[in-house]
Structure formats: C-alpha cells, structure tokens
Amino acid sequence: MSEKYALPLFILLVVGTGALIGFLFQPGPWYAGLSKPWFNPPGAVFAPVWTLLYILIGIAGWRSWYRTGDRRMKFFWLAQMGLNFLWSPAFFGAESLVLALAIILPMWICIAAFLLRALQIDRISAWLFLPYLAWVSFATLLNAALYLLN
C-alpha cells in the first residue's frame, strides 16, 4: 500500500477501533457506584482526549511502518495497541479493577519502550507518544486509586 493512503488508514483503524470499543464498553451503573478519588476527571473529558491520542498513536504507527521500518518500534507499537484495546473490556466489561491494572501496567511499559526506542530513531514519533505516556500514567494512577478505594 502506498505511504499516502496508509496514513489515513492507520489513523482510521486506530480511532475507529478505539471508538468502537468505547461504544461497546461504556461506563455504566457499576462505574457510577464506585468511590472515586478527588482527581477523577468528569466523564466528558475522556472521549476528546482519547480521540486526539488515537490520532497521534495512528501517526506514530504509520511512521513506524513507513518511515523507520524498525522492528522493535513496530513490536512495541502493536503490543501497546493490543493492551490498550483490552483495557476497556477488562475495566468496564468485566468490571475488574485488578484485571485492568494488570493490563495497564504492561501497556505503560510498552508505551515507554516505544518512546525510548523512537527517541533513537524517529524523534517525531517519540514526541507523538509523549502525551499518550502522560495520559496513561494518569490513567494508571486513577485505576490504582479506584482499586484502593473500592
């Protein structure tokens, strides 16, 4: 596939899959009934943040395939993406705070590993992943706080 058609496809696949998972696994009465930490953001924050992050993740994935071709970057990109797409079904679907933590911790490691590898090879991809690492760091803290409070 040509590079110029692959970029929108990467973005569409990442954003589309994320949106579909978000639609299928929405917060419901279980989540509403949880004790929340003081830093829990309002629900309206999540969709716009994840949409922007998924766009950045899609661009970084495209760069991994079409600009760098680095096998380790590809591996960490695919690994974090798989774990990312498992988190909502674990958290909202299975209603398991501990399973969600067991997914988000290695996801954070894969994101950090991608970013560190990208710093050596493709600084643009590293910059694209920086907000993602920051958000998933916050999400990990939030997931852990929810676990401790409930």
What does this structure look like?
The protein is mainly α and 150 residues long. The chain has one domain (3-149): TspO/MBR protein (Ferritin). It is 83% helix and 0% strand. The chain is globular. The mean pLDDT is 96. The chain crosses the membrane at residues 7-25, 45-63, 75-92, 98-116, 128-149.
Quickly describe the structure.
It holds the Pfam family TspO_MBR. 83% of the residues lie in helices and 0% in strands.
Rg, alpha carbons: 16 Å
| Structural class assignment | mainly alpha
Number of strands: 0
Q: If classified by CATH, what would the architecture be?
A: Up-down Bundle
What form results from the Cα inertia axes?
Answer: globular
Low-confidence stretches: none
CATH top level is Mainly Alpha
Output the helix-strand order: HHHHHH
Under CATH, the homologous superfamily reads: TspO/MBR protein
Share of β-strand residues: under 5%
Task: Quickly count the domains.
Answer: 1
Membrane topology: Multi-pass membrane protein
InterPro entries: TspO/MBR-related_sf (IPR038330), TspO_MBR (IPR004307)
Keywords: Membrane, Transmembrane, Transmembrane helix
Family: Belongs to the TspO/BZRP family.
